[in-house]
């Protein structure tokens, strides 16, 4: 028996791209059962409602106040009637085979991510290539994910029962909520399978949360603190201190690229968390002062 599939699309100031997102869901090679559009109390409500009324599969929800991306996804999860849930940001698109490929690897204790393709702001998507198969990476432990979250956040496909088990997204997080959810899934023994095909089409947006280095640096550190607290490991433990040092290097790299003095101040403050490891603390500071990080944008990612 086929499981019902719900796609959840939170929307704020995305009225110009929402129709494109919904159309990409409607164009799937395996049809979904419903599309839950969650209007996060947008100033573009009239425009959003004029769009969603054109699609029979859309279930429309409007938040009474602006509650953020994580909480809006949770609202969509509450409303969704599908046994399987997946997500799409309102300014992005699905590749036509996204649902098809991810369903192949979904299981009772398994969730599925996929690769992404970036489209430059105001750029053209180009022709869609259809795929016969793709490699799949299996992740069962946080491991290297702690150092670099390479999973495409909004690409998640998940049985709704698993989201109920872990409590959905953390609404206290205003960024990095995807990173936090991946970690919490792994912590309770859920397997992540990552399909290495660009099935999620990400449109780069100058106003995107992911481009705000100060914002993302603050929240990713909060996610790490929450993770190590859940696994009862202090930030000065053998593993945690190296993870922390790596992220501080990234924060200094982001400062050197963007020159946001707020980020420099927070990075210097957070450096005190390594006070119990003076050698590691000194190394991170030396790397920052050497200015070599401006040559390697990889460290900022």
Structure report:
The chain is of the alpha/beta class and 301 residues long. It folds into 2 domains: 5-203, Spore Coat Polysaccharide Biosynthesis Protein SpsA, Chain A; 212-300. 39% of the residues lie in helices and 18% in strands. The chain has helices at residues 15-26, 45-52, 69-79, 98-103, 160-166, 177-187, 213-230, 238-258, 261-270, 278-289; strands at residues 5-11, 34-39, 58-62, 84-87, 93-94, 110-119, 136-139, 157-159, 191-203. The strands form 2 sheets. It has a 5-stranded mixed beta sheet, sandwiched between helices. Strand 2 (34-39), helix 2 and strand 3 (58-62) form a beta-alpha-beta unit. The longest helix is centred in the C-terminal third of the chain and has 21 residues, at 238-258. The mean pLDDT is 92.
Short overview:
The chain is of the alpha/beta class. It contains 10 helices and 9 strands.
Q: List the total number of helices.
A: 10
CATH class of the largest domain: Alpha Beta
Rg (CA only): 20 Å
| Largest sheet descriptor | 5 strands, mixed
Number of domain modules? 2
Supply the CATH architecture of the largest domain. Alpha-Beta Complex
Distance between the termini: 42 Å
Q: CATH homologous superfamily of the largest domain? A: Spore Coat Polysaccharide Biosynthesis Protein SpsA, Chain A
Q: Return the structural class.
A: alpha/beta
Number of strands: 9
The helical percent reads 25-40%
Sketch the topology as an H/E string, one letter per element: EHEHEHEEHEEEHHEHHHH
Strands ordered across the widest β-sheet: 3-2-1-4-8
CATH topology of the largest domain: Spore Coat Polysaccharide Biosynthesis Protein SpsA, Chain A
Q: Low-confidence segments, ≥5 residues, pLDDT <50?
A: none
What does the average pLDDT come to?
A: 92
